[in-house]
Amino acid sequence: MERDLSEKHPPEKQLSNVSDSSDNKENATSIATNLNADHHDHPETETCDQLGSPSLKAGVKVEETDNTSHEIEEVDQEEKENDEKIEDNPPPEIHYTLETVSQDIDQFITTLSATPKDAKETTVEESKDEKMSMEIPVFVEKFLDLVEEKVAKHELTEGKGKWGQNPEEDSSFLEAVNRISKLTSSLDGLRSDPNHAALISRNGGIQQRAMACLEDEFRFTLEDIKHNDQDPNTDAKGKQHEADRCVVQESESSVTDNFLGYSDDAVSKLNRIAKEMIEGGFESECCQVYMMIRGQAFDECFVEIGFEKISIDEVQKMQWEALEREIPLWIKAVKEYASIYFVKELKLAEAIFSNYSSISSSLFSNLTRSVLIQLLNFAEAVAMTKRSAEKLFKFLDMYETLRDSLPAMGALFSEEYENELKAESTTARCRIGEAAICMFCDLENSIKSDTGKTPVPGGAVHPLTRYTMNYVKYAGEYIATLEQVFREHSKIERADSTSRPRYESESQNFNNDDDEETQSPFSNQLMRVMDLLDSNLEAKSKVYKDISLSCIFMMNNGRYIVQKIKGSTEIRQMMGDPWCRKKSSELRNYHKNYQRETWSKLLGCLGHEGLQVNGKVIKPVLKERFKSFNMLFDEIHKTQSTWVVSDEQLQSELRVSITAVVIPAYRSFMGRFSQYLTAGRQTEKYIKYQADDLETYIDELFDGNPASGARKRP
To answer: Is the four-CA dihedral 113, 115, 117, 121 of positive or negative sign?
Structure first.
């Protein structure tokens, strides 16, 4: 009997059953404590055990087992009652707000991002396992609920200008987005744990929606400048009655000084939005919006300036008259972009992306590059058009613009982009310069090809002379630029200009110490043009059958040339005083030749030779002399009053010189011989002019007026 009980309820088995039947470790510990207490409270158990009585020992063990079972039942009953109390009286629920939960989120993010204290003992895998085993606190879900609610509110108001009405709300939203981005980054290490997949996915979705709100507000704020600058007279379609609106108005210092028209508050808001988008991993979206809006702003500047986007092919097909109107607009665009728009655009980019210098530099370079490529392409396209001399000055304007405006922008760009810009602008400028040289050198061909044999009526200034000298005079306004162009690109001069004509040695004679090799390439070219013109005019003067008229023609053209040279300080300095003295000497010679050819025969009628024989005046000879004088003067007046001397000074000089020669001789002749004519009919018949009459008719010479020659004589 005793053996059967011992086998049926061995003590070890009973303890094992007690342990297995308990779900709580604390219960098992309590049971073990009770067992030890019972053991001390019943010394007889020890006595029996010491006495070695199996039956007594078995009896005691049965009693202990019964007591243990009873205690387990009591513990279970107590736990059941406690659970019922908790269900009847649950703990109060915590009320979360975005402000209160944000502190917990910050601490949680710090915990996730914390580095193990002993990096040597903790491996990367152990750290990763530790994160994966971490439980996500309940307040994280609460935080996502609150942020999602705020995002939904902003989605309802986006693009309607609601930002800025409540600065505290805007700041709260940006702070929430910042925490969402940090939480996204911190939870990245838990992606491989499927238990956290739903949370991570939800967090990412909320971040996407929040960033979409920021992107829309970023776009709206960048575009809002258009509404701020819009003229009150703008019609419903957005067209202005006065085409004076642009992204920047140079005359309005308040605009140019304030980030291209953006207010400080707008720039500050753009800066905060850009910072959150970039830190949240949405740099690409932020930069795309900036590039698009600011690129459109640059396009609007082109429209306001009036310069249209024209392809290279379109430029090639344009008539020069149309292209000539586009060049000043292009020049204006280059100057304003270089001196105003680009400077302010860099300032704006640096203010918005103040924490990301590489991003602001890249955005600015990409924006300006597209504009510069368009401007430089136009310049190169113009340089490839058909060349002609009349295009020279527009080309020089473009050359000066590229030379003066673009290098000033170098400081705005990085060294790499500055070098690239310099290379591209230099290429365009060189092509314009080379074309300009060819155009000026083509002036030689224009002179050589003018071989017309039709004389200019009245010996007036030849159209070729006017064209060439006006061309040279205008060139004087670009003397420094032409000097630079010829110096830098003279190697591309035409091959036919390298042959030295016969006048080159003459040029060296009156340039004294100025050796040709020391003269500038442009100075040499100008000398060739002037000497070619002289040779051409000399050939044209031979077309006139009247030598006197030929002299008038050369005087007219020579005086015109000298006056144009003297009228340009730069050209006169380049031609030199020896050249001017030589031309003046040539004019005096033509003047002397004219007087000899025209008035020497007339003055011969007033000579004393042959009028007297043995001291007596021969009246028939005297009468013939008066008749010859009258006839010659009438013919000269009739002819030369139709001749043209447009230069008033030259005209006056000619009349004065004629009067000085003719009038004194006539007065002397009249005073000596008029008395030998019978008063009355003979006097009226042979003495046709008084001295004062001759002066009047001399003053009618070179008027180019046919009516003067047809006037009835007294």
So the answer is: positive
